[in-house]
Amino acid sequence: MARKKEGKPFVIANPIYDTVFKRLMENQRIAKFFLSTILEQQVEDITVMPQEFTYRLDETKVLEKAKVVEEKEKEGHVEYFSIFRLDFMATILDSEGVRRKILIELQKSWDTLDVIRFRQYLGEQYVRVDKIDGKEVVLPITTIYILGNNLSEIKCPCVKVGRTYTDMLNKKTINTKSKFIENLTHNSYVIQAGRITDVRYTTNLDKLLSIFEQRYFVKEGSGARKEYPYQPDDEDMTLITDLLYEMGADPKEQKQIEDEEEALRVYNLQHGTLKKKLEEKEKMIEEKDKRIAELDKRIAELERFLRDKQVE
Question: What is the pLDDT of residue 7?
Fold first, then answer.
């Protein structure tokens, strides 16, 4: 297999695809680097939890309904993973130098309409009891969401949704943490792959996000493989790009990625009309709300006018 040339762009498999991302997260060192970078805390140890829930869509059923793709000569069918999910039990070293265990729920989806399943999976974690050294414990939860499409309201590529304790009477921040509260609330991190542009490649976060950047595709109309224009300058990024390079050059793994890409394309064809209708409906509701607000304003003005007339 030809090796990538140092100092020059090289082709890598796009990790936004589940097939590729799963391979990355199966490597413990890469998984530690990924989680440590996103959480901005040192992850010292991780264990992939045995539960892995994935929503699957059978492409053959989609083909029958969409009626837009001719019969394929391939055997069987392709399954499209609408939501990819992994759970990790992690030992982290927090900013105060204290080691603690947390549950990290990592979910990746192409479609934000899957919010119901996001919530369903999160609910499953809140009723779950884990074991440490044979003892049942309830672990704090942290969620990480990687989105294949963009949130219209949020323009930045990486968002942390944190929480603080506030003394409501004195309007002061409480710095002490409560185990009770920590186990009932959680931090979230959202990565929008479509908004990753103009990577500075200076911090670990910049470097990590660079592999998800949705540009530099090597084949028009395909997002499965892309050129990587940055030069890895540390062991972690070298390990990641080496693996992605090998997947991008391996014909068997290329086929798996292309199958997923095709299933996704068919899925989008089938659900594109539904999305459009929902967007149109939301727009109609928004316009209706504006008209109602304008009408309420006119009524209020008329009422003031009538009151002023009575005073005269």
Answer: 66
For residue 19, pLDDT beyond 50: yes
For 180, other C-beta atoms within 10 Å of its C-beta total 8
Closest residue by Cα to residue 226 from 7, 17, 27 = 17
Mean pLDDT of 297-306: 86
Angle, vertex CA 187, rays to CA 181 and CA 188, nearest 5: 150
Two tokens at 47?
A: 């264990």
Per the document, the length of the chain is 312
For 181, the token pair is 């509260």
C-alpha to C-alpha distance for 104 and 122, rounded to whole angstroms: 11
The model's pTM is 0.72
- Tell me which amino acid residue 274 is: L
What's the rounded Cα separation, in Å, for the pair 142 and 59?
A: 32
Helix ranges (H only) for the chain are: 18-26, 28-39, 59-66, 115-126, 179-182, 204-210, 235-249, 251-311
Q: Please give the torsion angle defined by the CA atoms of residues 222, 109, 160 and 98, in that order, rounded to the nearest 10 degrees.
A: -110
Cα Rg of the chain, angstroms: 24
SS3 178: coil
Owner of token pair 């409501």: 168
Tokens describing residue 38: 């996103």
Do 267 and 273 contact (CB within 8 A), yes or no? no
Instruction: Say if CB 17 and CB 260 are below 8 A apart.
Output: yes
Going by DSSP bridges, is the β-strand pair 141-147/55-58 parallel, antiparallel, or unpaired?
Answer: unpaired
Would you say 200 and 155 are in contact if contact means Cβ atoms under 8 Å apart?
Answer: no
Q: How confident is the model at residue 121 (pLDDT cuts 50, 70, 90)?
A: low
pLDDT at 8 over 80: no
Q: Strands 165-167 and 141-147: what pairing?
A: unpaired
Beta bridge partners of 45: 91
